[in-house]
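Per your request, structure below.
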């Protein structure tokens, strides 16, 4: 059944046009495009320790709230940019074709004091995991390898911190369950309400 232009605009399939005929973009897409531009200049590094593969980025992933309002083409560009950054970081780190069989991810989001923290259910790292699979660090992103969903926590950066100027991210992909459990115990004991 053919859909009217007004219905297509309402469903977000095509962009709305103003009276002059130019395309009006939803506010969410403007924010997402700014974040996409910032991502193009991001610095992503990857290295391997005895316990984990560690990914560091000076930019944090876009939130689920923005993804929901994103145009599919913008999301595709955003996801592909993350995959490219991860792929390049893998090439520099000599981790290509590692094909590790287990992953227990823990995400640390760093934000300068005074900056709003993310809702933890808003942190989406799917393109990063896809990048690790495409580049051969992991065999697959199935539940056989990624046994648990990513555990996320946030850290307030101190005034004199030089690691990240305003915000950043570290993801530890632990290789063994016991190392993952030790890290979780360490994180959970620092939460004041527990």
């Amino acid at each position: 059944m053919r859909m009217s232009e007004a219905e297509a605009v309402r469903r977000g399939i095509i962009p709305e046009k103003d009276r002059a005929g130019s395309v009006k973009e939803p506010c969410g897409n403007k924010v997402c495009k700014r974040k996409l531009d910032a991502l193009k200049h991001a610095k992503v590094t990857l290295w391997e320790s005895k316990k984990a593969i560690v990914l560091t980025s000076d930019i944090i992933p876009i939130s689920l709230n923005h993804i929901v309002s994103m145009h599919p083409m913008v999301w595709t560009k955003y996801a592909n940019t993350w995959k490219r950054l991860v792929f390049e970081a893998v090439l520099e780190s000599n981790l290509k074709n590692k094909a590790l069989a287990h992953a227990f991810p823990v995400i640390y989001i760093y934000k300068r004091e005074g900056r709003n923290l993310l809702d933890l259910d808003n942190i989406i790292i799917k393109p990063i995991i896809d990048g690790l699979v495409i580049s051969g660090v992991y065999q697959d992103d199935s539940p056989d390898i990624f046994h648990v969903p990513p555990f996320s926590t946030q850290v307030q950066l101190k005034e004199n911190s030089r690691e990240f100027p305003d915000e950043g991210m570290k993801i530890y992909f632990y290789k063994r369950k016991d190392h993952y459990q030790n890290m979780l115990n360490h994180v959970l004991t620092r939460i004041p309400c527990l």
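Residues 72-93 form the longest helix (22 residues).

Regards,
D.
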